[in-house]
Amino acid sequence: MGPSSMPFRFRAVTLMIRFDGVYRSYSEWPALEDVSFSVEPGEFVVLTGPSGAGKTTILRLIWMGDLPSRGRVEVAGYSSDRMRPADFPALRRKIGVVFQDFKLLPDRTVFDNVALPLQVAGTSTRAVRKRVFSLLGEMGLSHRRLSMPHELSGGEQQRVAVARAMVAHPSVLLADEPTGNLDPVVSRRVIELLVEINRSGTAVLMATHDPRQIPPRLARLIFIEQGRIKDPSDIQSVEAR
Predict the structure, then answer these.
(1) d(Cα 170, Cα 139) in Å, to the nearest integer?
(2) In the beta sheet, which residues pair with residue 204?
(3) DSSP class of residue 167?
(4) What is the enclosing helix (H) or strand (E) of 172?
(5) What is the DSSP letter of 9?
(6) How far apart are CA 188 and CA 240, in angstroms?
(7) CA distances to 44, 54, 181, 236, 238 from 215, in Å
(8) How many whole angstroms separate alpha carbon 151 and alpha carbon 176?
(9) Residue 75 half-sphere exposure, CB side, CA atoms within 13 Å?
(10) What is the pLDDT of residues 46-83, one digit of tens each?
(11) pTM of the entire structure?
(12) Would you give the DSSP letter of residue 26?
């Protein structure tokens, strides 16, 4: 089989994410209309716009919790128009997701919450312990490993959520309003953590209504309003790092 006939998911990945003329509607309501943009490996992109603009819909399309009504989404070598049932878990192992409301399992310890993605993937107990202990140390949460989520502060819960998203070494980290429930001081610490993760080589796409949280020199800004990406002249863009 020659290179030109290889399935898309097996080709070399030159772009981490690509949206190509994407429409997404729910019943008769258009959430996204003709959205096109791309994210390169290792890039930090801030997706911003008012509430209801379509930011969360874009994130759901990236991890393919939804599929486009029209158009195509390509992520880490997978294409929305060629997905097979077995492809969805394989794709999602490449993606870490951090939510505004943390979504930690309330009946599991910090250690168990972070370990869960590796355990589901069948990783050995020894490898799980090594990776989780290492990551909790990097997050400053080693002393909290046996705590339950309700015993943590909001900032600690969000760091646990980031650790869980990063535990399987994803190629891209999606963060949906990750500082929305946090005070300004803790928000800065979470942003610093995302910047550090990006500097280690992981692509980061962060949705936020307040792009001022990220210094312009560190990220590319994409503005969306009423389901549409603004014209290029309205998109502020600078080279990451």
Answers:
(1) 17
(2) 44, 173
(3) T
(4) strand 172-176
(5) G
(6) 19
(7) 11, 23, 20, 12, 10
(8) 23
(9) 30
(10) 999 998 899 999 999 999 999 999 999 999 999 999 99
(11) 0.86
(12) E
